[in-house]
Amino acid sequence: MTKSPLALIVDDEPDILQLLGITLLRMGIDTRKAENLEQAYHHLANNQFDVCLTDMRLPDGDGLELVQYIQEKHAELPVALITAHGNMEIAIDAMKAGAFDFLSKPVDLNALRNLIGSALKLNQPQKAAPKSAVKMKKQLIGDTPIMKQLKQTILKLARSQAPVYILGESGTGKELVAKLIHYKGPRADAPFIPVNCGAIPSELMESEFFGHKKGSFTGAISDKKGLFQAADGGTLFLDEIAELPLPMQVKLLRAIQEKSVRPVGSDTEIPINVRILSASHKNLLELVEKENFRQDLFYRINVIELAVPALRERSEDIPKLAHYLLNQLALLHDCEPTKIAEDALISLQSYDFPGNIRELENILERAITLCTGDTIQLADLNLNTNNQSISQSTSTPLPQLTARNGLPLDEYLEKIESEEIRQALVQAKGNKTQAAKLLGISFRAMRYKLKKLELE
Q1: Is 280 left (phi over 0), alpha (psi -120 to 50) or beta?
Q2: Is the peptide bond before 145 cis (omega within 30 degrees of 0)?
Q3: Cα separation of 250 and 233, whole Å?
Q4: Dist. CA 239–CA 229, nearest whole Å
């Protein structure tokens, strides 16, 4: 006979204890109740719990103390904090201390069931990977200390529901890290929805994120679910979150805090159960100081910060990573993997890789095309040419355009702008995101200018 899960409920209000106990009992979960920390510690010493719910305010201390105690003594036990409505600062402090998640009073029973369901999945025996996870072809490759630490942190974060902000340079694999956090956690069977915030036109953002009702605006010919609803039960990954305009930041903050969304044209809100992961190659704290990014949203998404190292910070991983990428390219093209000469690998290890893993993949793909045999040689990498191009592009001044020579002003300025963009693309080896960063403009602005100046 299967043993029922056991939950510890800690609250000094008898009515709350009774309500939570009845709700969990209907879910097939046995409970032990405590009205203070002393009773909670006694139960923890004498029982093997599967989940813990604790109020923030207790007669002999607070819920944060219990969260920290459980982290030290019972690290595998997921604990959720119950806070006063709107007290996000305490909820954030709790998740930083190691809480699995939080609930606001008055407790929404549907949210409670979702939370308990996710928490109980953490310590269940590992099942076969879900089909969606099997589709993940890329893995986090590397055995350097910095990569081992990153992998351990990912496993730890996968057990939490805390929002994670992933920072790192373009091409380091921030989306891959987000996917691993999702697929190694209790939401693995639910959707992982990635969205590039810089690629959505500002006038369509609210509809894209929250959905819309039929007839709410011109062109709304039917009801549409937004990204939050598409990710319900799973994870929403907000890539390049720094590109969100300020008005949208306000609406996003409210959706995250209230755990509900209101579609455009609707009078009612829809509850959502979504974990938020976000990323950017920009320094969000600097944007906050310049008032280009809301401070309250920054602290809400940045509960846990995870840095992804640049490739040059782990050059010892390059040989293993190169072989892995060559095997992936072979699978893609249905052919035998191309080998790579030892001196070519050594040269790759000494290269700076401003475009990181994405650039390494591009270099190898080009080298496969250039090499005449089944082995990539040093000359096939064309690294010296690339470095020389970068040196030339950064040291060569702009053509002498100070004299307009009769050109209209707008054509003259477009000529200068076009040359700057070309040089940035050369320096970034065709990587548009990196080129935009070099020019100090958004990716969206970069795409617009490429189209406008016919540089695609």
Answers
A1: beta
A2: no
A3: 23
A4: 18
What does the DSSP assignment read for 109-168?
Answer: HHHHHHHHHHHHHHTSPP-PPPHHHHT--------SHHHHHHHHHHHHHHT----EEEE-
d(CA 362, CA 54): 51
pTM of the model: 0.77
The model's pLDDT over 62-79, given as tens digits with 9 standing for 90+, comes to 999 999 999 999 989 999
Q: Return d(Cα 236, Cα 182) in angstroms, integer.
A: 9
What the block records as the tokens of 89 is 């600062």
Reported as type and span, the H/E element at residue 412 is helix 409-427
Are the C-beta atoms of residues 80 and 92 closer than 8 Å to each other?
Answer: no
pLDDT tens figures, 254-313: 999 888 999 988 889 999 999 999 999 999 999 999 999 999 999 999 999 999 999 999
* Partners of 375 in the β-ladder: 339
Q: What angle do CA 445, 449, 455 make, to 5 degrees?
A: 140
Structure-block tokens of residue 242: 């720094």
Confidence (pLDDT) at 351: 93
For 376-401, write each residue's pLDDT tens digit. 999 889 885 444 344 334 444 444 44
Cis, bond preceding 14 (omega within 30 deg of 0): no
Q: Which structure tokens are listed for 170? A: 């373009």
How deeply is 402 buried, as exposed, middle or buried, from its count of CB atoms within 10 A (0-12, 13-18, 19+)? exposed
Structure tokens at 99: 């809480």
Report how far residue 21's alpha carbon sits from residue 34's, in angstroms, rounded to the nearest whole number.
11
Tell me how crowded residue 286 is: count the other CB atoms within 10 A of its CB: 11
Residue 57 CA, distance from chain mean position: 32
Q: 369-382 in b/e burial notation, b at 16+ Cβ within 10 A?
A: eebeeeebebbbbe
* pLDDT tens digits along 35-58: 999 999 999 999 999 999 999 999
Helix (H) or strand (E) holding 17: helix 14-26
pLDDT at residue 139, rounded to an integer: 81
- Please give the pLDDT value at position 27: 93
Q: How far is Cα 451 from Cα 456, in angstroms, rounded to an integer?
A: 6
Beta strand 260-261 with 270-271: parallel, antiparallel or unpaired?
A: antiparallel
Distance between CA 201 and CA 243 in Å, rounded? 11
Rounded to an integer, what distance in angstroms lies between the CA atom of residue 347 and that of residue 336? Answer: 24
